[in-house]
Amino acid sequence: MESNSPKRRKLDHHAPGGPTLENAASSSMGASGSSAFVLETDELLKEGRLDYPSAFPGLDQTLRQLKETIEGLAQYGPVPIGEASASWEKTSRTTIPYPDPKPAKNCPYKVAFEKPSHINIVGSYALQTMAKSQSSFAVDMIIVMPTALFSEKDYRDYRYFYKRAFFLAYIANALRKDSSSLDFVYANLNGNTLLPILVAQPQGQSSKSQNAGQEAPRGTLKFEIRIIPSAPEGYFPAAKLSATSCAIRSISASDSKDSKDSKVPTPFYNNTLKSESQFVPYLKLLHRTSNTCASFKDACILGRTWLQQRGFGSHVAEGGFGHFHWAVLMALLLQTGGRKGEPILSPSLHASQLFKATLQYLASSDLHKKPLVLGSNAPAMETIREDGAVLYDSDRSMNIMFNMTTASVSMLNEYAVLSLSAINHPHVDQFGSLFITKANQPLQMFDLFVKIDVPSNKSRKHLNVSDSRSPTVLFAEEIYRTLKEALGERAKSINIQIPKPTTWKVTSSSAKSNSENVCVGIMCDPVKASQNKEFGPLYERKKDAAKFREFWGDVAELWQFPSGEIVESVDWSAYSSSGYFGICQAIIQYILKLRLQLNESDLEFHGQGFTDIISLSSADKTNFDAARAAFSVFEKDVRELEDLPLSVKQIAPISPETRFASLRSPTPHPRRQGSRPIDVMLSFEASGKWPENIASIQRAKIALLLQIGRALEEAKAGIRTRLGLEDADRDTENLAFLDIIYKSGFSFRLRVHSDQEETLLDRQTKDQTLDRHTRTEAADLLSSARWRSMILPLHSQTIFTHCTRFPALSSSIRLTKHWFNAHRLGNHFSEPLIELFVLQAFLQPHPFPIPSSTSTGFLRTLLLLASHDWREEPMIIDPSDSLSASQRHDISTRLEAWRKIDKNMNRITLFVATPFDATGVAYTQNIPKVVATRMTTLARSATKAAKDKGIELDPRTLFQSGLRDYDVVIHLSSKAIKGILRDDGTKHSQFKNLDETGSLEALPLHESPVPALLKRLNAIYATPLLFFHGGPEDTVIAALWNPQLHSRLFSANMPSSFRPVGVDEDGDGDGDGDGGERFKLNREAVLAEIARIGGDLIERIHVKDNS
Asked: What interhelical angle do 351-364 and 406-424 show, nearest 10?
């Protein structure tokens, strides 16, 4: 092994603040994880490579014809620009795509056309690093203009770009007349308005109609040819085009009225000029690297895929960092980058190792603070420093990131950091998060969106001092800088999406300028964004204080702390009632109006629609805290009881109200809200006083509950207790509970757990001398006892802990529960299971950051449900990272065993394991396969809608569910339900003056009426009907008939009401032709029985007409 192996190297860039790269070729995913990642990337490369001759048939011939046509053009000119603009355009009917500002009519410069020095194919087609997953395929043909066309000072004042534009127009005129099979349009190279290019497309295809990976008939791909004029290599003097040089005299003159020495730098203009002569040098660099590093091309394809999944490309509207920039960066790191100029990367590395090392370089680079230099010729830092990011190739004197915006640089760095986090996480699907999941989904990433109209006067204002950059891009940069300073730590990330300009015809003067807008996506910090005050510098720091007041204007004021310190501040408490969304919205509206003169009509806010669906408010946390405080009082009261025969071991709340996860925020007097008391499990220390019989233990629990109730009423004033009986079928089940009602309004439902009961049930389960029915019954009782006494308390504590850790978790859980209820899946998925789904989206958010709002938490959960393959994979939720690799393997093995035993998934569908339930089935009992499939289908539909519509999505559409898919729809009576919930033993009248108010201390119901009815219907008709019901406010119970319940011969244990349908004589029914009388399900009788059971609760039953 080499002594300077990449695994041993440590990079410390020679410029202070440079990136540090350790173990570039390895990761902490472990040997097995690393090898799996390599195998997956190899498969991706195998599937993604193109067969170029079959993918682009006839392309080489088309390129050859274009080359021959261009080389055969006659010389033209030189003629003055004014003459060319006036006469040549009119004669040829071809527009000269001059950049702004257009040349004056009396401009002294001349334009001409001569045979190109040479014509080359560059880019990914020449390097053969295209991939099938690309959204578009472009072949770049560069046409190097001869030096005879230019003079020494053509780098100044757009001279080169004017001459380039005429050169391009002359070619466009000739090609559109000579090539009848191609359509020609103008476009700007990567969104750079200084660089118009000619785009040739085969007739009958459009770039807009091209979808990712979509192939035309016979396996061909749609493509376009980009014809790009370029300057001769090394023609422009690099010394006069540094970042501090001014190459546009009009800017210098307008900004230096009194001083002739004052010059305004034009770094973007200068970099654009330098890039024009770098096509061939970079082509040579990439080809040379591909020859010396066998895996370079594959690593380029991996980089392209990673960038593509994050929406990055070479176009400025796509971030300004694409496949070319990735390939150049990796090629440079294979040659240099070390502290002594040695290569960071080794050419012997595998493609996946090169990819990870390049990713780590991007993640560790702080491009905002100091320029990073790659190459042997280190320039003076003053000559390359710019306002934007600088990644400087010193050998070619180029900043390869000059076309990136400040926001896109931040996003690139953040995506790289998130991807490295996924790679280094031992239990994350590294391959899926890096290459499969589409990460540039705004609704999955950001919390608050602002769509801002670009004012035309703003564009004109910046036209003269724009450094020739697009006015829209400059406007976006101003917005970013303003919001970054105004929001400060309230915003964890800000991204600005710039509209992508369209192409325009070669006969049109310029691209059609429709009304433009930019979209700002903001990822908030919920805690810091909720702060009512913005604190600035100390008043004594006059310079900083003046700067603070100048930025904030009239809203800035002084604030004195109790310690006596006086600071500058801004008060936003007037908007605190709207939460941090309201505060951030107020800040954005104010500062953009103050700094950029944007009115409220120019701003359109999105992102709050999800919180409005279930009316989330800032008071909800207070209500949850009140419920926790009430439980603490209750726990203290029970522990202080002195005459209990056993010592209290644990008092654990197991209701969602105490873990910040209930759909409704808890309020006192639950009877009036239609909700149940807070469930609590009481466990005692191990004792030999418990009976040795399970039925006797249940009666001993009743005695304990009665004693606790009497003791509480005697010890504490204002407490009422009532013993309630469970709806138990056997005397070995839990028989009773104790309701404790406090005068404050909160009530608790106490149940007792016995360790002895578990011991006896476990013994019965393993006793082979008992019959199978008894052992199965004991196993069910044991599972139920462990669920209440062990799993639920640990689950509640886990959810509560993480709700305090993740501010958006609670509201995300509540909204997700509402989604399940809205689609009438709530009766099949328990609340704890839904809570685990949401928690998993927070624990493993890759490739996204941890959700920071209700909307991102909810949509991320739907994305998880849409992508999780529950048929083949377990969902392992490990909040404390306590499961070892062997334990995870055992869980996967257990799922495989279940699938072998139950191939049709009649018993177990979803398999969700946690550290406190490694069996994987405690949370997912009794979920039919059709219900699990419907959940996945609905989640995929919602995720697709969020991806396709973006910020224009109406959140309410994700919660709309029709009734047409159901066979039976049972409409419940709202009046009857309210009457049951309202019945507190007092007399009610339609006249207010005769209506008795009733006692606020009415006893809680044992169970709400609708769940009780649904439970009874499931117990009786689970075989013929599958029921669907939403939350407590849903007044509909829908059902589907069981399609597998065929006609049959008579038997004594038929699952429901059947009626005779005739004799099976010749293959009818089951096909046995035995001649016996057959029976089929009597649907009318079943529905009549349901109506009888429901009584006044059922208003009507609608049956779908299948005729």
From this structure: 130
Asked if 82 and 107 count as a contact pair (C-beta separation under 8 A), the reply is yes
First to last CA, the chain: 77
CA distances from 695 to 236, 691, 700, 757, 781 (A): 96, 9, 9, 9, 12
Q: Taking the CA of residue 523 as centre, how many other CA atoms within 13 Å lie in the half-sphere pointing to its CB?
A: 21
Do 681 and 792 form a contact (C-beta atoms < 8 A)? yes
Q: Are 275 and 404 in contact (CB under 8 A)?
A: no
Which tokens in the block code for residue 524?
A: 């908030």
- The Cα–Cα gap between 826 and 130 comes to 47
The mean pLDDT value for 770-782 works out to 90
Q: Cα-atom radius of gyration of the chain, to the nearest Å?
A: 36
Contact between residue 826 and residue 1008 where contact means Cβ atoms under 8 Å apart? no
What is the rounded CA–CA span in Å between residue 480 and residue 22? 33
pLDDT in tens, 366-421: 887 888 888 887 788 888 888 888 899 888 889 999 999 999 999 999 999 999 99
**Residue 730, Cβ density class (10 Å: 0-12 exposed, 13-18 middle, ≥19 buried):** exposed
CB 475 within 8 A of CB 462: yes
* pLDDT for position 989: 54
Question: How many other β-carbons are positioned within 10 Å of the β-carbon of residue 417?
Answer: 15
- CB atoms under 10 Å from CB of 578, counted, come to 16
Residue 555 makes CB contacts below 8 A (sequence gap 6+) with 570, 571, 590
Diameter over CA atoms, the chain: 113
SS3 letters for 86-99? Answer: HHHHHHHCCCCCCC
Residue 518 phi/psi, 5-degree rounding, is -110, 150
Which 3 state secondary structure label does DSSP give 548?
A: helix
Whole-number Å distance between alpha carbons of 69 and 826: 69
Amino acid letter, 863 = L
Euclidean distance between CA atoms 781 and 734, whole angstroms: 9
Instruction: Locate 1082 and state its tokens.
Output: 């009597």
To the nearest whole number, what is the mean pLDDT of the chain? 86
Tokens 């569910």, residue located? 961
CA distance 1058 to 985: 42
User: Angle of helix 792-805 relative to helix 831-843, nearest 10 degrees?
Assistant: 40
Buried b (16+ CB within 10 A) or exposed e, 893-904: ebbeebeeeeee
Q: Print burial letters for 62-75: b (CB count within 10 Å at least 16), e (below 16).
A: bbebbbeebeebee
- DSSP of 17-65, one letter per residue? T--EEESTT--TTHHHHHHHHHHHHHHHHHHH---HHHHSTTHHHHHHH
Q: One-letter amino acid identity for 1044?
A: Q
Task: Work out the pLDDT band at 438, boundaries 50, 70, 90.
Answer: very high
The CA distance from 476 to 482, in Å, is 10
Q: At what angle do helices 831-843 and 809-822 cross, to 10 degrees?
A: 130
pLDDT in tens, 1044-1093: 887 778 877 788 888 888 766 544 445 455 557 888 888 899 999 999 99
pLDDT more than 70, % of the chain: 89
Those residues with Cβ within 8 angstroms of residue 270's Cβ, 6 or more apart along the chain or in another chain: 241, 242, 243, 245, 247
| Residue-wise DSSP of 322-337 | -HHHHHHHHHHHTT-B
Rounded to whole angstroms, the Cα distance separating 472 from 464 reads 14
Token output for 404: 């990136």
The beta strand positions in 82-234, using DSSP E, are: 110-113, 118-122, 138-144, 182-188, 196-202, 224-230
Q: From CA 404, how far away is CA 397, in angstroms rounded?
A: 17
